[in-house]
Hints:
It contains ten helices and seven strands. By secondary structure, the chain is α/β, with parallel strands linked by helices. The protein has a seven-stranded mixed β-sheet with strand order 3-2-1-4-5-7-6, with helices on both faces.
Amino acid sequence: xxxxxxxxxxxxxxxxxxxxxxxxxxxxxxxxxxxxxxxxxxxxxxxxxxxxxxxxxxxxxxxxxxxxxxxxxxxxxxxxxxxxxxxxxxxxxxxxxxxxxxxxxxxxxxxxxxxxxxxxxxxxxxxxxxxxxxxxxxxxxxxxxxxxxxxxxxxxxxxxxxxxxxxxxxxxxxxxxxxxxxxxxxxxxxxxxxxxxxxxxxxxxxxxxxxxxxxxxxxxxxxxxxxxxxxxxxxxxxxxxxxxxxxxxxxxxxxxxxxxxxxx
Length: 264
């Protein structure tokens, strides 16, 4: 099974966007912290790695968490965004900081006991290649633990834009069923694969869009409209999104996928 081409953004754009967001990312990363902490809690209790990888390491928050959890181990932070690595390196955590692509990992075969990746793999167009590389890099008994996003993420924003025009304004994500099929076919044992809906609330639409931009996760899809968004369309978007407001504010849904796979 292969992922549809032309649906996810170009990796150069992803790398550039997250590099620009390195300084602002941690200030708005509430969801990312919560999801990564949950992924850490889902690691197998018998896992004691000698070497781990933080794949899509970003600002290095979870590299430092992995170093604290496994003080005996050597860690490698891998990210496609050079700006994130420059930001993370002085903060420590990992022993090595490597610029690399999850679909073509610059790591030796059977060299690591844990690949940890939180909210990064949704940007990879070929998830089968990601899984194949994880299988190659993991030592026997090694674990791939990942969190990602699937269909249902930012559904309120997507629905509001659909009421305004026909352009792609919200990042597209795979279906959970596609994650399941690809994981089951990859040659790794599926220990756990689950999905969880998380909802954040915002005072207004501007707060949400500011946060997405600060994260580097604003619209990067092919088919997005070029140029500035007109004021009339923005007003129409605000009015459409207001239909979703509840007693806590404007909701934004995130459909999170958690996967734990082990190499036999």
